[in-house]
Amino acid sequence: QVDLVESGGGSVQAGGSLRLSCVASRATYFHTCVAWFRQTPGYERKGVAAIHTGSGSTFTADAVEGRFTISRDDAKNTVYLQMDNVRPEDTALYYCATDRKFYQDRLCFGAVAAHETNFGAWGQGTQVTVSS
Asked: Per the CB 3.0–4.6 Å rule, which of 20, 54, 120, 125 could disulfide with 31?
């Protein structure tokens, strides 16, 4: 069973926009933490943003604050990452992840802020490449 599937990555010039999608299985999606992480070769995976699909509360990391927005569409079991004014340093493989142990907003956002990667379910990743 595949719990999470990302899409929407691609190549874009600096200053442009992309929207990533993370489709979750219905059993996975509700009342839980869904997060976006990114990783570049040779570096650890870093938390980017998160949303609690129960409360609707969101978190965005300082590195992307004001440029990236996380949102959800409950009818489609989908979490989005809208990436605006992208920079070359945003180039990475982007993953979405979820785990019901982060059932409270503070647990969810604390984990992502601390770049904790002990989430139980991960997508396969979608590549984002930003050229200058």
From this structure: 54
Q: Which of these, 94, 91, 79, 93, lies nearest to 16 by C-alpha position?
A: 91
- The strand pairing partners of 31, in sequence order, are none
Say how far apart CA 40 and CA 36 lie, in whole Å. Answer: 14
**Tens digits of per-residue pLDDT, 88-132?**
999 999 999 999 899 899 999 999 999 999 999 999 999 999 999
Going by the DSSP 8-state scheme, the letter that residue 32 receives in this structure is: S
Cα gap 6→42, rounded to integer Å? 22
The letter for the amino acid at 32 is: T
**Nearest Cα to 55, choosing from 104, 88, 5, 94?**
104
- DSSP H or E run through 61: none
Question: Contacts by 58-62 with C-beta closer than 8 Å and gap 24+?
Answer: 59/108, 59/109, 59/112, 59/113, 61/112, 61/113
DSSP 3-state helix, strand, coil percentages of the chain (rounded to 5)? 15, 45, 40
Give the whole-angstrom CA distance, residue 64 versus residue 48.
Answer: 7
